[in-house]
Amino acid sequence: MVPLLHAQQRQAEVLTLKDAVNYALQNKAEAQKAKLDIENSEYQIQEVRARALPNISANGSLTYNPILQLNALPGDFFGAPGTTVLAPLGQKWNSVAGVNLTQTIFDQSVFTGLKAAKSTREFYQVNAQLTEEQVIERVANNYYQVYVQRQNLVLIDSTYQNTLKVRNIIKGQFDNGLARKIDLDRMNVNLRNIETQRQQLINAVALQENALKFYMGMPIETPITLPETEFEVRPVATEDTPDVTIRTEYQLLEKQEKLYFYNKKATQAGFYPTLSLTAGYNYIGQGPELPWFAKPSNGVYWSDFSTLGLNLNIPIFSGFGTRAKVRQADIELKRIEQDKKDTKLSLDLAYQNAKTQIENSLITINTQRENVALAKEVLDNTQNNYQQGLASLTDLLDAENSNIEAQNNYTSALLDFKLAEIQLIKAKGELKTLTN
């Protein structure tokens, strides 16, 4: 967290674009959640890996048989040939404790799942990068919009002061019988209109600053101020269309395509046989009373036994269900291929549009800069002529309005340039440079 932006501070600090972006990457929920997704993917890999490792479990049981089952046995066993004897089998009490092991030897879905889990981690890593770029873009856009609103407020404050001076001059003339009441009334109306515009701009600035703080993940009550040096118009290098395949948006689709590929492989694993090993070792106690801590003298006997086994499962026919799932996976792969083509075209379009907007904005900025200087010169001359009685009040009000309009057009052109600059940086895959 940037120390100068600590939530407890109430003194407005200078907030550069770099500060705003880095603060957002450390505090905005989207960026933090993307990092948690990466961390969670590690546990997903461990989960899949566990299917390939031995599974060991311990078990124990205690059984009491109040009525033993009688089994019909030949009397030969009991010295009574030719008869049938109903004899109970087993003991009233049985207790078993043991350890069992299961080990997968061959299961294609396990091996494919492990590769898919690793690809999932890569997907979340790219997605986190895309999320950071989206956070940077939103913060930068709102950062420059705050600047324009503040510039408009500075302009309206300056206009208000100039209009107030002229109104005071006319009032003095009116008090001395040198000006008409209607002229004084028109200036008062104009002054009140400017006051209304100023209040609207104050509200607009507050709303835009709150939006910026929200996109940064900053407490809304934190006071901020922006340096004007952040908004210098610098030459922007435009070049041939960049390789969009290195863009994060495109890379994310490629990772998603890889996941779909492994999903298809995992489905195809349903055609393969599976082989696993099982082993168990158990200790059993039987007798007419509770076996625990009992001895043979009590009629309780303990013995051990173990098992080893191989389990082979060969799929023969599944009603074409597996085949249908594989074909669905093929469709997903074809869909993502179309998404890649469309995304590539969209990214090329975004670059060309940003490049065109940059060029047009530079032309507009140069024109409006000259227009601002000219409008200011006209206003100064008109004010001087009005004081000397060589210009009407209408001429003066028109010159003031033209000056305000020229200033507004210039700041709007500057905003268009900065927003287009962000889009150009984004189109070149260089948004992260705003953090440096």
Kindly describe this structure:
- The protein has seven helices and eight strands.
- The strands form three sheets. Strands 2-5-7-8 form a four-stranded antiparallel beta sheet, with no helix packed on it. It has a two-stranded parallel sheet with strand order 1-6. It has a two-stranded antiparallel sheet with strand order 3-4.
- Residues 1-9 have low confidence and may be disordered.
- It is elongated and about 150 Å long.
- 60% of the residues lie in helices and 15% in strands.
- With 436 residues, the chain is of the alpha+beta class.
- It has helices at residues 17-27, 29-50, 108-175, 181-216, 248-268, 321-387, 393-427, and strands at 13-14, 55-64, 70-74, 84-88, 93-106, 224-225, 274-287, 301-313.
Q: Topology, pairings included?
A:
Layout lengths: L12 E2 L2 H11 L1 H22 L4 E10 L5 E5 L9 E5 L4 E14 L1 H68 L5 H36 L7 E2 L22 H21 L5 E14 L13 E13 L7 H67 L5 H35 L9
Parallel strand pairs: 1-6
Antiparallel strand pairs: 2-5, 3-4, 5-7, 7-8
Please give the share of residues in helix.
55-70%
Supply Rg.
41 Å
How many DSSP-defined strands? 8
Mean pLDDT comes to: 88
Indicate the CATH class of the domain at 3-51 and 107-145 and 201-272 and 321-435: Mainly Alpha
Secondary-structure class: alpha+beta
Sheet bearing the most strands, described?
A: 4 strands, antiparallel
Tell me the number of helical segments per DSSP (H or I, 4 or more residues long).
Answer: 7
CATH level 3 topology of the domain at 3-51 and 107-145 and 201-272 and 321-435: Outer membrane efflux proteins (OEP)
The succession of helices and strands, N to C, reads: EHHEEEEHHEHEEHH
Strand order of the largest sheet: 2-5-7-8
**For this structure, what is the CATH homologous superfamily of the domain at 3-51 and 107-145 and 201-272 and 321-435?**
Outer membrane efflux proteins (OEP)
Global geometry: elongated
Provide the CATH architecture of the domain at 3-51 and 107-145 and 201-272 and 321-435: Up-down Bundle
Low-confidence stretches: 1-9
Amino-to-carboxy terminus distance: 15 Å
Q: Per DSSP, what share of the residues sits in E-state strands of 2 or more residues?
A: 5-15%
